[in-house]
Write a structure and sequence with these properties.
Elements: H1 12-30, H2 34-44, E1 50-55, E2 58-63, H3 67-77, H4 86-99, E3 100-103, E4 106-107, H5 108-112, H6 117-125, H7 130-151, H8 156-168
Length: 169
């Protein structure tokens, strides 16, 4: 029968150092390379369009919405099916709350401390002048129209062209 030698008791600093080393090893194993991160961002953002809209001394950065974001904005406005004008303002505001991703180059979560559309609506959209919200929404709709033209695949030839362009980039 083989005896295992008794291990020396370790100090708290040695245990802390070992635990830190293990955390760093796990973190390094899970870390994406810059190329991998760029590829993931590219694949996740295929078809997403952005536009910077200067308003006074501020610049709002808008992006097109994912399908789920569009549906959520429409659902929020659909509570006003009675034809009241509130549906327009709710749709505009909920769309902007999901579309604004930066103000003056600072990510929206750093500006308001949260990424939830409700918080962005409450702290940004509700506090801006109505004409500013209208301008931002008009720019969003313009960007959306341009995106539909850009990605509106009508014929098989157009589909093939876009597929080839994506492969080249």
């Amino acid at each position: 029968m083989r005896q295992v030698p008794a291990q020396q008791p370790q100090s708290h600093s040695q245990i802390d150092a070992i635990q830190q080393m293990r955390r760093e090893q796990i973190s390094a194993a899970n870390r994406l390379t810059q190329d991998a991160r760029n590829r993931v961002n590219f694949l996740a953002g295929i078809g997403r369009t952005t536009v910077d809209v200067p308003v006074g001394e501020a610049t709002f950065s808008l992006r097109s919405l994912k399908s789920t974001e569009s549906h959520a904005a429409i659902r929020a406005a659909s509570v006003f099916v009675d034809g009241s004008p509130d549906w327009y303002f709710t749709l505009r505001d909920m769309t902007l709350a999901r579309s604004i991703y930066a103000i003056d180059g600072v990510d929206i979560d750093m500006v308001v401390g949260d990424l939830s559309p409700e918080t962005i609506h409450e702290l940004v959209i509700d506090e801006m002048d109505d004409l500013v919200a209208d301008k931002l929404y008009a720019e969003f709709l313009k960007m959306q129209r341009e995106q539909k033209i850009k990605f509106g695949l009508v014929t098989p030839e157009q589909m093939k062209e876009v597929t080839e362009d994506i492969k080249k980039s």
